Amino acid sequence: MNQRPLAGITVADFTWLGAGSYTTRMLADFGADVIKIESGARLDSLRDARPFQGGVRGVNRSGYFADRNASKRSITLNLKTGEGCALARQLVRCSDVVANNFTPGTMEKFALGYDAVRAFRPDIVYIAMSMHGQAGPQAQYLGYGLTIGAVTGLHHLCGLPDQEPAGTGTNFPDHVPNPAHAAFAILAALRHRRRTGQGQLIDMAQIEPTIALLGPAVLDYTANGHVAGRVGNQQIAGAPHGVYPCRGDDRWIALSATGQPAWAALRTVLADPALDQDLRFADVAARWQHRAALDAALARSTAHHDAHELARRLQQHGVAAGPVQDAADVLLRDAQLQARQHWAYLDHPEMGRTVYGTLPLRMSRTPTGPLRPAPLLGQHSDEILREKLDLSDDDIAALRSRGVLQ
């Protein structure tokens, strides 16, 4: 009952930045021993990414890095040295999973590509999650979440009509579709190995999970020859559906009341005669036709209400609604997240007591969630070398003196 689902699984984690690091973070929260293989000479860029604890910059003080790397252990290896590469291969030899999100060919430079690894660890589960996959005319293209959102068509759909593509406000592919698909693939491959003894290469192109989000737009073009564009918060053929101002500075509510019962409930809660008497809002078709006027009328009405209280009352009347919360609301004032104990507070060696998001699920028979705070750079180097490779303190000191552990 106290053993985590992936207890006993070791992951050699060569990932960096967002999607790869979040993939292996999920495995670590499920109990895998995720060994993050880093270099002080070439840092994971997230270690130098804002926000920094207390506003003080440092390789161990990035909140972004901490969120993506909780529950892991860190070892620093200089892979530009033969000894560093040899140690990396030894760690891979005693691992179940190898993960990287480099451009194709990078791992091969260190003799750590899939073919090289399976030669000495044939049952390895090896995931390579580059932007475009391992082969094809654009396989060598570089990219980040912003780029992925652009080339997949996601950015084309995000924003207001007749304005430039706005994107999703964050590198959405890094946070949801790519790590979720990658973690699922790893679990499937581990299950296959358990049943057959066979390892395999998972060639994941990070553009493809994001494309999977665009089904309606693809079908619209396939069936109708129509290229969908930016519609802001609108929902096709249904109104009202949007975000409306509330009392206070930059406070808003999101609501959807496109059907007649929901529309009637919304009018009851708002008790605004202007909404009751305007024939342009009488039925579904009329509200869609006059949606600009409807949005303006609703904005005038909701502006007098507190967002949280109005959302509560609308929910009681069966209307889908929620306050537009900022980071402080989500962290400190969201009663549902607090009831589910979504936030975990862990003592970090340099940043002190810091907050981490837990996995968005609860399992009835096995624990999940962060085991330890994000590691300091190379925090566990000696521990890992003693435990996994059976090296002595003198061996480790000699490696460090030769610049191998940096």
TrEMBL record:
Residue ranges crossing the lipid bilayer per the database entry: none
Coiled coil regions, renumbered to chain: none
Entry GO MF terms: CoA-transferase activity
Record keywords, A-Z: Transferase
Pfam families: CoA_transf_3
UniProt cross-references to Gene3D superfamilies, sorted A to Z: Crotonobetainyl-coa:carnitine coa-transferase, domain 1, formyl-coa transferase, domain 3
UniProt protein name: L-carnitine dehydratase/bile acid-inducible protein F
Taxonomic placement: Bacteria, Pseudomonadati, Pseudomonadota, Betaproteobacteria, Burkholderiales
